[in-house]
Amino acid sequence: MKIKPYKNPLIAAIEKQNKLIQHSIASANLIKNIPPVFREIRESAIAVGNVDQIMKSVIPLYKIQDTFEKISKGIKQTKEDMEVFQVTIVELGYPPHYDVDISQMRMINRDFIVDKKQVVEYIDEFMAWNYDATAIYEMLIKWEGKKFLERRIQILRNVVKAHNQGMYHLAVLGIISQYEGLIVDAFSITGFVNGSIQQILLEYLLKHESMNSFGFDKVIFDYYNSNILVSFRHGEELGADISRHAILHGGHTDYGTLPVSLKVILLFDFLVDAIEELTPERILECQMAVEQKRKK
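Now predict its structure.
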């Protein structure tokens, strides 16, 4: 199976602009490195008025500044589109995730503004298409290389296998049970962990400036609290279809669907990426905050 490499949509946009720069630089070097004999011919051509032909090869030099301006505008526009997409996709019930093409983000943003009902009707199908069996398998390959996932990897393999075979009850139950342990292990916390300590861990994991996520982490923090940790009461309407408490305590039994399975897998994948960004200093700060909380 050929696996396509993961690429952040912002990075893809920057690389596209970089190609324009390289083209301009290559054109500049071509003119700069013309041998003397040809340089004399060029000067003669200018002398006899053949300026247009020469200028056609020189023009890219003057476009370099314009190219940099386009890069700046492109990055700003991409960042804004991603920020709007965060709000849109959460409104549609999914956690924001990197691996959606920027053009598709813009399409969903536009459709949501024009007709929210229309997007609600197609979003599950779109997400299933965008994150097909191959894409989910790619995530597993990425997880396989994470040392901090070693003791969970067999569970994750079974989760991916179950999801790709349509056994969504098993996939959801398998991965949603790993959230708390994943985050606790990330900060090397031992002992009793209650709700207030979980909040400390989540804040240190997600509520901080990130160079790569453009605020996705902060949106995920709210999404996690509103969907995974949302409280529930037996016999009453559920607050979210991926409520960890409702699922693990048997209050929710209709979670065996592709959209629900996809939501919890995407959220887990984001948490994995967030853990990789943790620094030793931040881990230590979190451990100290937990100790202070336990002393109260």
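Residues 64-91 form the longest helix (28 residues).
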